[in-house]
């Protein structure tokens, strides 16, 4: 019994960790899927969302109530960024979006450092700090809520892309931009919408993460690097791929950390990434 | 042609006024001794850097002024053995980047011709800046970088006033020994957790070495990356080792992950002892609330040191006036001491020659009671480490950090074992 308790706990911990990674990764993969843009500033959008959640919390609005507000704010922010910035970059050479979004990363981080200081800040007395126990397995309420949030968000995004008219248009743009234009799809509008929805996803992620994590100007880097691995592993542009990739990364990290050494916990993750990229460059569930 | 003649004239005119200016100041004012200070004035540590700068400026004014406190070189109108020369600080920005700190040291030495360097707060920038000082043969006084390895490099010109993480590790074991003697509390199994950067690994090495030497059972040693976003495996490792105490070195985000992980997984040691950093961040108690109760952390300074040196509240008052009512803390107090220790050596050297200053630094012997710190004394050993350094141990009691060790500055008795996790 006791011999099984640790692996069981690691399994649950790994899956929940993976779901948190998925939370951050789905927005990234959507943006890439639709417009072929790797948004290097994705982690910084997460940072903005976390600060927004903190600000709402200081006004007395908790993270779960604040979540839709933050998601809407980030959606609008994403649309504005697309209209004034990304749209112009798309007209240039492919590297333009790489340098452009990377420049945005530096700018947003610098602005946050200058105006909000580099101190760590977290929600005072965050809700859901209890623990849920089932037999020998224990999970914190906050992590469980984050995991459920990730599942809901991924499912909703998947349903939206698969079953709605706009979603179909997005898939059409993803498949062939020129053909989509010829079919009468307003590519600019769809791109803007995808960028906005991608940002809204990371907005929701930021609100949920504030349940268990402090915010600081470079917090994005901690999560974004994993998100890039998740997206590349699962398949660039694939929403269900992001979920599968994230769960895999979570499990590898937690089991690797325990059975190898915590220092080496990222080794199996990057090893898996290397193997997948070598054997299946499009990622586990990627197309083309 | 005309233009060239004009510029020659201008150069001559400037040279004359410059000479004249130098002449008049020399006649009116005592000479100035220039010390170069390297601090993180911009970048991620800019807030800390601003405080350190204010602290060093305060120390400079205390040395140059005539109001006396029970502190070395304070209130003697400059440096008496150097004709009451005033000290002047020239600041350079490290941006908290090692290469930038190196460039700053280079510039201060070759262009500003400083007689000594002080700084730089972060261990990584101190490492590079002190290499430059070594190359030029300029004394480098470090008030506040605690990576043990800094004084293990065989440098001749490097002096560190602060105790390092090895001293703090030693303090924990002294604390255990005292608990055993006074309360018959027996600590045997020690788990060591630390982030895998210079800070955590240096602290962990010292904790492991000293613990083994003293016969403790080091049941596990967990090193992890501070940028990690989850510590599932790490917590399970510690749980499986069932330690009596956990000694931990983490920054804030990871300290919160561990505290929540320990609680969630029912890891219940007799005590958690932390190497400050995340565990003394204001966000720690604010975020964890009751779950932070009973955590021990080492500190370098506490205002309760006023029981040993009455100038602590006075200097605190002066510092608050200059720095937006922020109280004196471990970093700013050490920076003040750094300038005072340097001033003390300069005065005894009676010269601004690097060799003379270095010899004077080697002969430094300031009693602990004449510092703002909980130190036994200021005296540098052959490696340049202050061998009289000591820290204090605080415990979170009723949501506040209370000094519990050593007994002559303690304000509360330690609560042992720490309270059980609340639901």
Characterize the structure shown:
The complex is a heterodimer of chains A (288) and B (423). Chain A is an all-alpha fold. Chain A has one domain: ABC transporter involved in vitamin B12 uptake, BtuC. In chain A, 75% of the residues lie in helices and 3% in strands. Chain A contains eleven helices and two strands; from the N terminus they run ααααββααααααα. Chain A has helices at residues 2-35, 42-58, 63-91, 95-116, 141-163, 165-175, 177-182, 187-209, 219-234, 239-259, 266-279; strands at residues 131-134, 137-140. In chain A, strands 1-2 form a two-stranded antiparallel ribbon. With 423 residues, chain B is of the alpha/beta class. Chain B folds into two domains: 17-163 and 305-378, Response regulator (Rossmann fold); 166-299 and 392-405, Response regulator (Rossmann fold, 3-Layer(aba) Sandwich), CATH 3.40.50.2300. Helices cover 42% and strands 17% of the residues of chain B. Chain B is built from twelve helices and 14 strands. A seven-stranded mixed β-sheet of chain B has the order 7-6-8-9-10-13-14, with helices on both faces. Chain B has a five-stranded parallel β-sheet with strand order 2-1-3-4-5, sandwiched between helices. A two-stranded antiparallel sheet of chain B has the order 11-12. In chain B, β9, α9 and β10 form a beta-alpha-beta unit. In chain B, α2 runs parallel beside α11 (330-349), α3 (98-110) runs parallel beside α4 and α11 crosses α12. Residues 8-27 of chain B have low confidence and may be disordered. Chain A binds chain B through residues 6, 9-10, 13-14, 17, 20, 113, 117-126, 129-131, 138-140, 142, 212-214, 216-219, 221-223, 226, 250, 253-258, 261-263, 265-266, and chain B through 43-47, 196, 222-225, 227-234, 236-237, 240, 251-253, 256-257, 260, 263-266, 281, 283, 286-287, 289, 291, 423.
């Amino acid at each position: 019994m006791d011999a099984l308790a640790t692996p069981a706990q690691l399994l649950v911990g790994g899956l929940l960790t993976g779901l948190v990674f998925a939370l951050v990764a789905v927005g990234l993969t959507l943006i890439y899927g639709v417009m072929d843009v790797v948004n290097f500033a994705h982690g910084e959008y997460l940072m903005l969302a976390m600060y927004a959640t903190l600000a709402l919390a200081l006004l007395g609005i908790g993270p779960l109530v604040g979540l839709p507000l933050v998601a809407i704010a980030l959606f609008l922010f994403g649309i504005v960024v697309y209209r004034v910035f990304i749209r112009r970059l798309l007209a240039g050479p492919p590297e333009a979006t790489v340098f452009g979004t990377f420049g945005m990363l530096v700018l947003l981080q610098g602005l946050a450092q200058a105006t909000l200081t580099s101190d760590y800040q977290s929600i005072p007395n965050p809700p859901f700090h209890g623990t849920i126990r089932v037999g020998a397995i224990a999970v914190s309420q906050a992590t469980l809520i984050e995991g459920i949030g990730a599942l809901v968000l991924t499912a909703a995004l998947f349903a939206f892309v698969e079953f709605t008219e706009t979603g179909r248009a997005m898939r059409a743009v993803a498949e062939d931009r020129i053909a989509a234009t010829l079919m009468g799809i307003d590519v600019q509008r769809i791109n803007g919408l995808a960028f906005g929805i991608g940002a809204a996803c990371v907005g929701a992620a930021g609100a949920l993460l504030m349940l268990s994590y402090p915010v600081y100007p470079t917090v994005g880097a901690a999560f974004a690097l994993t998100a890039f691995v998740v997206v590349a592993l699962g398949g660039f542009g694939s929403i269900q791929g992001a979920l599968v990739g994230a769960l895999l990364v979570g499990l590898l990290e937690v089991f690797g950390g325990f059975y190898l050494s915590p220092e080496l916990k990222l080794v199996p993750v990057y090893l898996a990434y290397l193997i997948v990229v070598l054997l299946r460059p499009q990622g586990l569930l990627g197309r083309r | 042609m005309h233009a060239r003649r004009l510029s020659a004239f201008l150069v001559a005119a400037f040279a004359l006024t410059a000479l004249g200016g130098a002449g008049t100041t020399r006649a009116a004012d005592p000479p100035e001794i220039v010390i170069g200070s390297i601090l993180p004035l911009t970048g991620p540590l800019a807030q800390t850097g601003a405080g350190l700068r204010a602290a060093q400026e305060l120390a400079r004014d205390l040395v140059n002024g005539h109001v006396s406190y029970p502190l070395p070189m304070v209130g003697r109108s400059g440096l008496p053995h150097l004709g009451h020369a005033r000290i002047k600080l020239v600041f350079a920005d490290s941006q908290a980047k090692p290469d930038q700190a190196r460039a700053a040291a280079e510039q201060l030495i070759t262009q500003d011709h400083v007689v000594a360097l002080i700084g730089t707060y972060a261990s990584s920038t101190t490492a590079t800046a002190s290499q430059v000082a070594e190359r030029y043969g300029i004394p480098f006084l470090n008030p506040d970088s605690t990576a043990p390895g800094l004084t293990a490099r065989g440098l001749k010109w490097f002096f560190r006033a602060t105790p390092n993480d090895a001293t703090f590790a030693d303090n924990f074991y002294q604390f255990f020994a005292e608990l055993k003697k006074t309360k018959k509390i027996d600590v045997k199994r020690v788990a060591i957790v630390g982030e895998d950067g210079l800070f955590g690994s240096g602290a962990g090495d010292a904790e492991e070495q000293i613990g083994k030497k003293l016969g403790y059972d080091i049941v596990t040693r967990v090193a992890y990356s501070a940028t990690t976003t989850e510590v599932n495996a790490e917590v399970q490792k510690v749980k499986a080792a069932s330690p009596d105490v956990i000694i931990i070195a983490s920054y804030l985000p990871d300290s919160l992950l561990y505290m929540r992980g320990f609680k969630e997984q029912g890891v219940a040691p007799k005590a958690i002892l932390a190497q400050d950093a995340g565990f003394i961040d204001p966000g720690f108690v604010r975020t964890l609330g009751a779950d932070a109760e009973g955590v021990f952390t080492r500190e370098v300074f506490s205002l309760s040191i006023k029981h040993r040196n009455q100038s602590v509240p006075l200097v605190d008052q002066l510092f608050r006036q200059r720095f937006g009512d922020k109280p004196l803390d471990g970093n700013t107090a050490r920076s003040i001491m750094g300038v005072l220790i340097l001033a003390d050596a300069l005065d005894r050297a009676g010269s601004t020659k690097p060799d003379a200053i270095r010899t004077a630094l080697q002969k430094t012997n300031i009693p602990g009671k004449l510092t703002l710190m909980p130190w036994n004394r200021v005296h540098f050993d052959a490696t340049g480490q202050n061998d009289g350094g000591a820290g204090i141990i605080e415990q979170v009691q009723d949501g506040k950090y209370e000094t519990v060790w050593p007994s002559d500055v303690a304000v509360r008795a330690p609560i042992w074992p720490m309270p059980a996790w609340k639901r």
